[in-house]
Amino acid sequence: MKRPWAVGGWLLGVAALLLGAPLVLDGIPAAEGTSPAAATATALERGRQLALAGNCGGCHTARGGAAYAGGRPIGTPFGTVYAGNLTPDADTGLGRWSAAQFRRALRHGVGADGRRLVPAFPYTETTKISDADADALFAWLRSLPPVKQANPPHRLRWPYGTQTALAAWRLAFFRPGAWQDDATKSREWNRGAYLVNGAGHCVACHGGRNALGGTADAGFGGGLIPTRNWYAPAFTRAAEASVAEWPLDDIVALLRDGAAPRGRAIGPMAEVVVQSTQHLPEADLRAMALYLKSLPVEAPAPRAGFVPPEPGVLAQGAQLYSDHCAACHGDDGDGGALPDGRLVVPALAGNRLVAMDPAVNLVRAIALGGFGAPTAARPQPFGMPPFAHVLDDGQLAAVTTHLRARWGAGAGPVSAFDVSRWRGADD
Question: N or C: which end of the chain has fewer CB within 10 A?
Answer without folding.
Answer: N
